[in-house]
Amino acid sequence: QDAWRFPSYFSETSLVDDTTVSSLACANRVISVANLDIVRNRINISSSEGPTRDGRPKPDVAAPGTDITAARGFSDPSTPWITLSGTSMASPAAAGCAAQIQSVDGTLKSWPEGCRAILLAGAKRNITGQTWWRDVVADVDASDGSGAVDALESVNIAKQRRSRNAAATGRGWD
Known about the structure:
about 170 residues; alpha+beta; three-stranded mixed beta sheet; two-stranded antiparallel sheet; about 10% strand
């Protein structure tokens, strides 16, 4: 019976250290997404913060996830829409951005590391404060990852494919 007991995230014993990112979001090749509240221009209080227990920064990016209206699914036809908040609403926005990146160049469909790199490179640094570099140096930037996903910037980077061994540029990949 103890195998079915899980700690409540609202109990005194649930936070055992200074990280709140769940184990599922801590995997090395997972893109973890923070819940961005666009109206307040900040990360929603419901989002977990890193770093991971082994010191890696998480979440990787932030995406709109507060007060998102979506199809309700299998429900009464008179209520086809539902408005929710959370990382479960933010993750589809980041996935859609990744799909747009992959639509630019077929190579990215079979190269998830490249797609991830472009997604992170295209993100807007810091949701608030424009303090990204200062936060990195001080090791305090643990709530928005690389910043808010920016589909247009990410697609523009994906369009700048360069040939192998080409000179380095500020934008582009090979």
